[in-house]
Amino acid sequence: MRWSRILRAIAYLAVGIMLVIQLYPIVWVAAASLKTPEELSNGAPFAMPAGFYIGNYIGAFSQSNLLRYLLNSTVVAVLTIIITIGLGAPAAYAIEKLRFPGAKLVLGYFLLGIMIPIFVTLLPMFQMFNAAGLRNTYWALVLPQVAFGLPLCIYLYTGFMRQVPDALLEAATIDGAGDLRIFLTIVFPLCGNVTVTIVTLSFLSVWNEFVFANTFMTAASMKTLPIGLNDFVGAYGKTDFGLTYAAIMVSILPTLILYFFLNKRVISGVAAGATK
Amino acid sequence: MSRSRSASAWLYVLPALILFTLLVIVPIIWSLSFSVFKWNGIGAKVFIGIGNYVRMWNDGLFRRAFVNNLIFAGLGTVVQVVLGMGMAILLMSITRFRDFVKVAYFIPCVISSVAICQIFAKLFALNPEGVFNALLGAAGLAAWKGAPLSDPHLALVIVTLVDAYKFCAIYMVIYFSAFMGIDAQLLEAAELDGANWWQRYVHVRFPMIRTVFLISLVVLISGTLKGFDVSYILTGGGPGASSELVSTYMYKTIFNSLNFGYGSAIAVFLAVECLLAVAIMQRLFRSSGQERM
Predict the structure, then answer these.
(1) Looking at CA atoms only, how far is residue A117 from chain B in angstroms?
(2) What is the dihedral of CA A214, A220, A223, A228, to 10 degrees?
(3) Structural domain of residue B181, as residue ranges?
(4) Shortest CB distance from A275 goes to which of B8, B34, B174?
(5) Do B106 and A267 touch (CB under 8 A)?
(6) Which of A10, B86, B166, B281 has the maximal Cβ count within 10 Å?
(7) Model confidence over B219-269: pLDDT tens digits?
(8) Which uninterrupted H or E stretch holds B37?
(9) Listed residue (B80, B108, B105, B79) closest to B92, CA to CA
(10) Are A91 and A125 contained in the same domain?
């Protein structure tokens, strides 16, 4: 019994050490963003801030396009999520519940997309968007992310719809409901949990996306938070460190807030999505 | 099903199908066709057959990026499996604060790679002195102080570790939920047979999550083979080409050197490499699975 108590103490100690490792970089940047210029230049890098100095945040917002980046990221995320679900859910419904000839083939075709690295599509997309005048518009980020988001979206929806009993849909058909009404009033509402999972997973991946944004958004006014932040650090990172830390915090706070409320969903969604 | 019903079913699929085809499948074919030309985007395309693929073979920078990428994938996979499994076992061994700890461990996964890279760039900085160098100084190892991100011997390892730091908690979640899914009766039976803590892992838990573990390896290796963000943002592939990966080299070849044909060939190589790696692993795992039965 004593042994087990010692072992348990060791386990909690190890859990604590790992907690410090996983959280330290974020706690450090949060602390550094609240330091005065004086503290940043003279204090030890691992010291805690003496007070609650918000000057860095004011400076970051006034000397950069952070607000614009926030807006751009939000618009791109909202459009991408709505369109992904708007296209993916009906497709999954047709594949899984209307079972038209070739449905399995279509599903396999979509699932191919999970394996494809985005890099092999980058130059052709660049040329397409260039020719269509879509570079430096929201569509240049929304369209590719919808296209690459559809496979996982359809995979998760079909997986759930498979468990919706056909008898339920047949009963509705007998009552005179058409396919569209069955989808809108029965199947899609039943998928609520899957929808929330897809919304959170898409939000995280779109909000943090780097490669498409870095390639298609070259106009300063169209940048999203990640590339805007990268530029900002490039411009101020060697002169005003306080601003840099504050800008980093502004870029991660929305995800942290969302994660605070939806962490169970995020974690179970990632587990479901990653082992597909 | 009647013919008209099947026709209307296509209406539900078609919008997704068209967008997916146009923006994922067509570009792949497009890249494939680019890869057999010498072309800078403005001048005439010159057909050179497999010339770009031969060039890759002879290109010292490409070979460096390829070898770097193998190290990035190999070391990254091992580190993430060890950290992910370690955290999963830690979670299994505590009863209080379990949910809180799990949620906290997962935080690096929800933050953008740009933010993570900028934070680590500051932690490793020499001027102003970051936490890393300050700790070396405090430990009396001032002679070891330096700028590890500018050190060609360290850059690739640091890029690999920062990438592993960002993603390892995904594997914790996967392993942990697999452990939780094991039938409790099996573990009780093992305990009644006198199996201790370690034996319950070796003889019950590890074998029971074998499939999930192999899937996680496939995800990890195919993911690290196409790794991009941390190398591109944290070190820009440098110093020199010391942390260049296949994808970052491809990106620079296309968008900095405007070498569209050669860059497309590298992109095709990367896609084929990832697909082959997955196919080989699936075949290996399937045959090793049959041997066990």
Answers:
(1) 6
(2) 80
(3) 60-292
(4) B174
(5) yes
(6) B166
(7) 899 999 999 999 999 999 889 899 999 999 999 999 999 999 999 999 999
(8) strand B37-38
(9) B105
(10) yes
Q: Which of A82, A84, A107 is nearest to B23 (CA)?
A: A84
Chain B partners of A11 at a C-beta cutoff of 8 Å?
90, 93-94
Of B16, B212, B264, the CB nearest to A87: B16
A-chain residues within 8 Å CB-CB of B233?
210, 230
Task: Indicate the pLDDT class of residue A65, thresholds 50, 70 and 90.
Answer: confident
CA A54 – CA B228 distance, rounded (Å):
34
Which residues of A fall within a CB distance of 8 Å from B232? 210
Instruction: Tell me the pLDDT band of B292, cut-offs 50, 70 and 90.
Output: very low
pLDDT reported for residue A274: 63
Rounded to an integer, the average pLDDT of B59-88 is 96
B179 touching chain A per CB within 8 A: no
Residues A13, A143: one domain? no
- The whole-angstrom separation of Cα B235 and Cα B120 is 11
pLDDT at B6 over 80: no
Q: Is A7 on the interface with B (CB under 8 A)?
A: yes
Same domain, A130 and A225: yes
Residues A237 and A194 in one domain: yes
Alpha-carbon dihedral angle through residues B251, B56, B223, B275, given to the nearest 10 degrees: 120
Instruction: Give ipTM to 2 decimals.
Output: 0.90
Q: Taking CA atoms, what residue in A is nearest to B218?
A: A275
For residues A183-208, average pLDDT? 91
What's the whole-model pTM score? 0.91
The domain that contains A83 carries what CATH number? 1.10.3720.10
Into how many domains does chain B fold? 1
pLDDT digits (tens, 9 = 90+) for A11-40: 899 999 999 999 999 999 999 999 888 888
A234-263 residues touching B, CB cutoff 8 A? 237, 241, 244-245, 248, 251-252, 255-256, 259, 263
Same domain as A194, residue A107:
yes
Residues in chain A with CB shorter than 8 Å from the CB of B112 are 207-208, 210, 225-226, 229, 251-252, 255
- A116: alpha, beta or left? (left if phi > 0; alpha if psi -120 to 50): beta
Q: Which of B31, B94, B173 is nearest residue A271 as measured by Cβ atoms?
A: B173
- With cut-offs at 50, 70 and 90, classify the pLDDT of residue B290: low
The CATH number assigned to the domain holding B182 equals 1.10.3720.10
CA B28 to chain centre: 21
> What range defines the domain where residue A10 resides?
2-53
DSSP state of B148: G
B214 at interface of A, judged by CB pairs closer than 8 A:
no
